[in-house]
Design a protein that fits this description.
By secondary structure, the protein is α/β, with parallel strands linked by helices. It is about 50% helix and about 15% strand. It contains 20 helices and 17 strands. A hairpin with a 3-residue loop joins strand 14 and strand 15. Helix 7 runs antiparallel to helix 8 and helix 13 runs parallel beside helix 14. It is globular and about 70 Å long.
Length: about 500
């Protein structure tokens, strides 16, 4: 017990908290001093007015603007200071240069014509012009193309995913890329690390990238240093710094595994025991993933290499990581990524396109349901137009305050005809959209502000693939163990629970 306490007091989390608290105390002391100086008071009011105008004229989500307007109204003296510290998400010069460098790496990576092959897109246009329009939007904004010559496999559980992943890792000959939001010590990580160390002894290059804040409570200090001593190449993405700024909100929430450029995985799974139900924290943990084999894996490799180059500042010869096999075609596959460093909300727009183009049904699974006006309107219009819109959320939450906000959206959705279910066995972490047996998205993208606006995310769109039917079948199985939410359920909720949800909902865009 004493050793754990000592490790905590000397760890980077505690030290960072102390330093941030010191900065906050200094800030409050300065602001307190300013209250005794008429000139400073006027300056702070002017700053708040100027920042209000900045928020009004900037191209921001209306919910984000409303949140800051409320803050300015409640704290007119200090609101401008808060916005300068936490609200301005524009990159500084150093980060802008790194972003430009990333784009240069991207352009180098696509040289050679891999992305200029338009045959899959032309074939998709013949299959469905409507779906081709959605695919073209993703191509135009992100550069990630539609692929054929790709086999796909769907995993309805973390347990199935882990078994297959370990089998494929053992077959690696040249390189392994791993990118996760959370990396936690335990049975799952130990089983993966054992294979990785054996592969390193065989001369396989192993690159691991995990989010520093996402893994803050699951790894000890200098964990990355220890892994490097074992032969892994490791990056802790956007390391925690004891600075009062908003850039720490930009997290790497992606989950990507690439093996020899020919096998790729993505989905909701992180490397932690609860994802494979080796540890029961919130009841049964329901998650999903997909495996790609063939041409489409090249997009996953690109995603990893771009962020790896962005994080390390080192160039890579992208062409060395191309697929070397051609697999059997199973529909059309379009992996894509979304990042918070641009003004394009690709992930949310891809979801909204599916909702808007639906003719029969749209089924959704998400651990968090925190909607902006655009998404809420799209869901309501679809349901009011006769589309079978169903949303499954967890019944046992991992974060109670987020769950309170999630439930605050139930009533307007139910009133519009959306069917809402809660997964009663435990926590539902899968992030999936499926519609009309023709299109589905599986990936890392939650239906909340953090995924849509703050995080690096990725997903895979499937058009006319066998995965689509497997997703809808899995959701039908889930519905059998779900509780359907109705207005009577909402009426029986405690008044203070509803109030907490509504209050937190107003603050959600700012967090």
């Amino acid at each position: 017990m004493l050793r754990k306490l000592l490790n905590f007091l000397t760890g980077r989390l505690f030290i960072s908290i102390v330093l941030i608290c010191v900065q906050l105390l200094l800030l409050f002391n300065i602001l307190g001093y300013a209250q005794n100086n008429a000139l400073w008071i006027q300056a702070l009011y002017v700053l708040t007015i100027v920042m209000t105008l900045v928020v009004v004229v900037r191209d921001l989500n209306p919910a984000y603007k409303i949140g800051w307007m409320l803050l300015f109204m409640l704290f007119p003296l200090y609101g401008g200071v808060f916005y300068v510290l936490f609200g301005n998400r524009r990159l500084n010069k150093r980060l802008r240069e790194r972003l430009e460098q990333l784009n240069i790496f991207y352009e180098k990576g696509v040289e050679g014509g891999a992305y200029s092959d338009l045959l899959p897109m032309r074939a998709l246009e013949r299959y469905s012009n409507t779906l081709a329009r959605q695919a073209q939007y993703i191509v135009n904004i992100t550069g990630y193309p539609v692929w054929s010559n790709t086999e796909v496999e769907y995993f309805p559980s973390g347990e199935a995913w882990l078994v297959d992943l370990l089998e494929e890792l053992e077959k690696a000959k040249h390189f392994i890329f791993l990118e996760f939001f959370i990396l936690a010590k335990g049975e799952v990580w130990d089983s993966i690390l054992t294979v990785l160390l054996e592969k390193i002894r065989q001369g396989v290059r192993v690159c691991l990238m995990f989010d520093d804040v996402g893994s803050l409570f699951t790894l000890e200090s200098h964990f990355d240093t220890r892994l490097r001593s074992l032969g892994l190449e490791v990056v802790a993405f956007n390391p925690l710094r004891a600075h009062l700024n908003s850039r720490l909100n930009s997290r790497d929430h992606r989950k990507v595994v690439v093996i020899d450029g020919n096998i790729g995985y993505t989905g909701g799974m992180n490397i932690a025991d609860e994802y494979a139900n080796r540890l029961l924290r919130f009841g049964h943990w329901k998650d999903t993933a997909v495996k790609l084999k063939g041409d489409a894996v090249w997009s996953l490799s690109q995603m990893f290499l771009q962020l790896w180059a962005f994080s390390t500042g080192k160039s890579e010869d992208f062409s060395a990581y191309r697929p070397t096999i051609t697999a059997r075609t199973d529909g059309f596959v379009q992996p894509f990524s979304d990042n918070p460093l641009d003004d394009d909300n690709v992930a949310e727009n891809a979801y909204i396109q599916i909702i808007s183009m639906a003719k029969r049904y749209v089924w959704i699974t998400t651990p968090y349901l925190i909607l902006d006006n655009e998404m809420l309107t799209a869901l309501k219009i679809a349901a009011q137009s006769g589309i079978d819109v169903r949303i499954i959320t967890p019944h046992i939450p991992d974060k109670k305050y987020v769950f309170a906000v999630t439930r605050s959206y139930y009533r307007p959705l139910l009133n519009a005809g959306v069917k809402i279910y809660e997964y009663t066995p435990g926590f539902l972490h899968a992030k999936m959209f499926v519609s009309d047996d023709r299109v589905a998205i599986i990936g890392t993208i939650n239906m909340d502000y953090r995924s849509f606006y703050l995080h690096f995310e990725n997903g895979v769109v499937f058009y006319g693939s066998s995965v689509i039917r497997k997703v809808s079948d899995d959701i039908e199985d889930m519905l059998e163990v779900c509780q359907q939410i109705d207005t009577d359920f909402l009426r029986k909720r405690k008044w203070y629970s509803r109030l907490v949800g509504l209050v937190l909902r107003m603050a959600a865009p700012l967090l």
